[in-house]
């Protein structure tokens, strides 16, 4: 049996291609923030893009006097930003993103050019000689990592235009706006200017840290090298028109101002939100439950019965992450059984008999560490279980010795990873493994907003990382939420939606392209928590030929009724379970 011992994050340098894009960069100076250094290092080492030009900016002596500037930040905003960085920098997974370091190319031999610029119509114009030097470089892309905004003549000298990121002030204003409404994700994008056309390429939708400006800002900047790698790879694969078709209209404004009054209002809202969360944590706790309903063999995949059977755990437990499998005349629902006293989960199951109903829960798998998300499936007459073992930094596979009672460890598919909600798909003779949390140890951001894919010819490996990883960067649908299933001839991948709140809803995504080199999906439906009164969220959705299963969560307060045993009840749906987009 062959297994992969550790995961090595792929990059542009790992994928040889027939030709390389010719890329240049514009810098303020050779000393750059570390997130810029990451981009330069990626281009220097890349086998997809060739770093052929590094241009540093030399401004007129009086240029700084006439530069268009953003509204000056208020004193309160500056104090908040300084205090926030002191408090949260040490608690950030990316504390060194803005440290200034010098860059020197190692593998590439780029032309070094000092560009003399002047200000014309609020944009910078290059000296004609420098413009000629840029044109002689025959660039495919010019990446602007400075604060200058080039005029059209420079844009026209590059085949696919000038690419840049949001300016610091614009980005800070966007973050401040989202911190006022933390249920909205932050869009991370690349600006593209080709001749007279300008637009943005949305690359990722990331979660918002409702408390820290620094953590949000550092997270956005640290993702830029991966974003640029994906977009350059898209350009190499599909050429210019593909990129132009993806461009969206630039944002019309920068967002709210950062005056003393506006900053004070934001800080007061944050304080109120913190107090509410503290009171809620003291007086209430969430309790997850599982739910199921029968399926008719000939029914449409979006329809079903109007009622659900709710299975509630005893008050000192909760049940979540249900998976269902049919065996003979019976069906079995495996789920996370979390003990509040032990503060860890085990894998339990309930047996569903068409005549006798749902049986009592039974524990079938327990480890010294937390277990959840029991992804269960069959292959070659054997039944396998792939629970989440993030706390053990592994992806572990178990085989049934005596289904459903006894299980043995069959293999470790990946080591040294904090992977969450790993899901296996056997499709057209190949195994595909979807998982989140691979790219970073910062589970707050990456466990929710990045989806990674691996593939293998065998269940036991070796597993190869997909060259497009992360294949999806969108907090609204990334993290796996159950088995992929067929509907109307298409694969549907359930993904968790964290945009409105933690574990808020499930997004159903149609898989349009699934190959060893490409992946693309389109969101086609949702399972929102409103299907039951007082339900706060749903984050797992699975189905077999006989049943659909999902989970939900409610608040339990000091006056709530306590149950020492499992409770089952039937509830009527308050809205359709699956809603098409």
Which CATH class of the largest domain?
Alpha Beta
- Class from helix and strand fractions: alpha+beta
Overall CATH architecture of the largest domain:
3-Layer(aba) Sandwich
Number of strands: 33
Description:
This protein is of the alpha+beta class. The protein has two domains: 15-276, Rossmann fold, CATH 3.40.50; 284-334 and 347-363 and 438-580, no CATH class. It is 20% helix and 39% strand. The chain has eleven helices and 33 strands. It has an eight-stranded mixed sheet, with helices on both faces. A hairpin with a 3-residue loop joins strand 20 (394-402) and strand 21. The two termini are 43 Å apart.
Give the topology, please:
Layout: E1 21-27, E2 31-33, H1 34-45, E3 49-59, H2 63-66, H3 75-88, E4 100-102, E5 111-120, E6 123-126, H4 128-136, E7 141-144, H5 152-156, E8 162-164, H6 168-180, E9 186-194, E10 197-206, H7 213-222, H8 224-238, H9 240-246, H10 260-283, E11 285-294, E12 307-312, E13 317-327, E14 330-339, E15 344-353, E16 357-358, E17 362-365, E18 372-379, E19 382-389, E20 394-402, E21 406-415, E22 420-427, E23 430-436, H11 446-449, E24 451-456, E25 464-465, E26 485-487, E27 490-497, E28 505-514, E29 519-527, E30 541-543, E31 547-556, E32 567-572, E33 579-580
Any key phrases for this structure?
5-stranded antiparallel beta sheet; 2 domains; 33 strands; 8-stranded mixed beta sheet; 20% helix; 39% strand; globular; alpha+beta; disordered N terminus; 581 residues; Rossmann fold; 11 helices
């Amino acid at each position: 049996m062959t297994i992969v011992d550790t995961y090595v994050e792929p990059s542009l340098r790992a994928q040889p291609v027939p030709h390389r894009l010719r890329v240049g960069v514009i810098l303020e100076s050779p000393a750059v923030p570390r997130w810029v250094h990451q981009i330069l290092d990626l281009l220097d080492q890349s086998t997809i893009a060739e770093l052929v030009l590094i241009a540093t900016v030399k401004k007129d002596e009086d240029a700084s006097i006439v530069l268009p500037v953003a509204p000056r930040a208020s004193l309160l905003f500056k104090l908040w930003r300084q205090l926030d960085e002191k408090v949260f920098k040490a608690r950030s997974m990316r504390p060194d993103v803005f440290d200034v370091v010098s860059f020197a190319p190692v593998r590439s031999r780029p032309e070094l050019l000092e560009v003399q610029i002047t200000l014309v119509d609020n944009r910078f114009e290059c000296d004609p000689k420098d413009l000629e030097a840029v044109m002689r470089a025959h660039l495919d892309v010019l990446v602007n990592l400075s604060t200058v905004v080039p005029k059209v003549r420079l844009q026209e000298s590059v085949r696919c235009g000038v690419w840049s990121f949001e300016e610091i002030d614009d980005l800070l204003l966007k973050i401040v706006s989202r911190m006022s409404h933390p249920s909205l994700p932050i869009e991370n994008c690349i600006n593209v200017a080709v001749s007279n056309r300008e637009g943005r390429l949305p690359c990722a939708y990331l979660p918002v840290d409702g408390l820290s400006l620094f953590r949000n800002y550092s997270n956005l900047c640290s993702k830029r090298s991966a974003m640029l790698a994906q977009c350059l790879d898209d350009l190499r694969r599909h050429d210019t028109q593909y990129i132009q078709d993806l461009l969206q209209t630039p944002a019309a404004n920068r967002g709210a101002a950062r005056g003393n009054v506006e900053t004070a209002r934001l800080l007061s809202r944050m304080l109120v939100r913190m107090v509410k969360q503290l009171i809620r944590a003291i007086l209430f706790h969430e309790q997850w439950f599982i739910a199921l309903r029968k399926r008719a063999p000939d029914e449409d995949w979006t329809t079903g019965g109007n009622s659900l059977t709710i299975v509630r755990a005893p008050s000192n437990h909760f049940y979540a992450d249900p998976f269902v499998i049919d065996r003979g005349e019976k069906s079995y629902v495996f789920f996370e059984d979390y003990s509040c006293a032990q503060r860890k989960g085990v894998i339990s199951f309930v047996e569903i008999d068409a005549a006798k109903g749902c049986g009592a829960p039974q524990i079938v798998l327990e480890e010294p560490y937390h277990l959840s998300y029991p992804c269960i499936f069959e292959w070659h007459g054997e039944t396998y279980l792939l629970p989440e073992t993030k706390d053990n930094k592994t992806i572990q596979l178990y085989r049934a010795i005596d289904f459903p009672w006894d299980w043995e460890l069959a293999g470790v598919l990946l080591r040294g990873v904090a992977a969450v909600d790993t899901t296996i798909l056997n499709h057209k003779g190949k195994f595909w493994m979807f998982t989140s949390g691979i790219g970073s140890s910062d589970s707050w951001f990456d466990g929710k907003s990045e989806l990674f894919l691996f593939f293998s010819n065998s269940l036991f490996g070796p597993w190869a990382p997909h060259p497009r990883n992360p294949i999806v960067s969108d907090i609204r649908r990334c993290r796996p939420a159950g088995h992929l299933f067929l509907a109307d001839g298409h694969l549907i991948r359930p993904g968790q939606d964290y945009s409105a709140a933690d574990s808020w809803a499930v997004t159903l995504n149609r898989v349009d392209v699934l190959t060893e080199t490409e992946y693309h999906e389109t969101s086609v439906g949702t399972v929102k928590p409103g299907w039951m009164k007082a339900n706060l969220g749903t984050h797992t959705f699975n189905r077999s030929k006989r049943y659909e299963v999902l989970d939900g969560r409610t608040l339990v307060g000091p006056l709530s009724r306590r149950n020492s045993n499992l409770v089952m009840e039937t509830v009527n749906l308050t809205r359709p379970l699956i809603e098409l987009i």
